[in-house]
Amino acid sequence: MSAPLLDGPRLAPASGGTPKQIVVLLHGYGSNGADLIGLAPHWRGALKDTLFVAPNAPERVPGMPGGFQWWGLASFDRAALAAGAARAAPVLDAYLDALLADHGLTDDRLALVGFSQGTMMALHVGPRRQRALAGIVGYSGMLADPAGFAGGVRSKPPVLLIHGDADPVVPVAGFHEAKREMHRSGFAVSDHLSRGLEHSVDMDGLRAGERFLARVLAPPVA
């Protein structure tokens, strides 16, 4: 088996068998895979043959023990976000390639789930892959490079965007912008807005994510 370039916690399929699909959970700035793998138990019952993996981002956050970042997030300056996502993208891409190869699966059997900066990564990397992923779920995030998004699209997996309308970290305007730009590029985008929710994931958002993942990862019709 090839060695992954990233590493982090994983949860084997509830069925006890060989994975038939994979969900990759991408954490936010200053967090780690151990945090986001906590979403997996909520979905395991509906996705019994799914391997859940939550890699730590490639960089440590200075002065924050246990904190990782996809890139240094000093500000939400558009040029800095676009450059950061572009720099981190090859590492995540190579990790996804190795993960699929290790388990003998194809892109259409893998879904990305991101939170905050992890959503920026999912929305940047997923559509730039040559073969379409099963789907992308983005919690509390935004497009890192909306101006360059359409020009980078190579595939169009279905997307679910979920956000709290009281988010003080990534304002809900980022949710609306991402939805608008992806619609313009021809993506099938569904969405869920949680009223009064700040920068977090609530039970309504978890249930929406479960329904979406169960649909896009359903076994192919023979």
Automatic annotation (TrEMBL):
Every Phospholipase/carboxylesterase/thioesterase domain range: 18-215
Task: Establish whether keyword Hydrolase is in the entry.
Answer: yes
Q: Which Pfam families match?
A: Abhydrolase_2 (PF02230)
MF annotations from Gene Ontology: hydrolase activity
Please provide the record's keywords in A-Z order.
Hydrolase
The lineage's top-level taxon is Bacteria
Which family does the record assign?
Belongs to the AB hydrolase superfamily. AB hydrolase 2 family.
* UniProt name for this protein: Phospholipase
Q: Which organism is it from?
A: Alterirhizorhabdus solaris
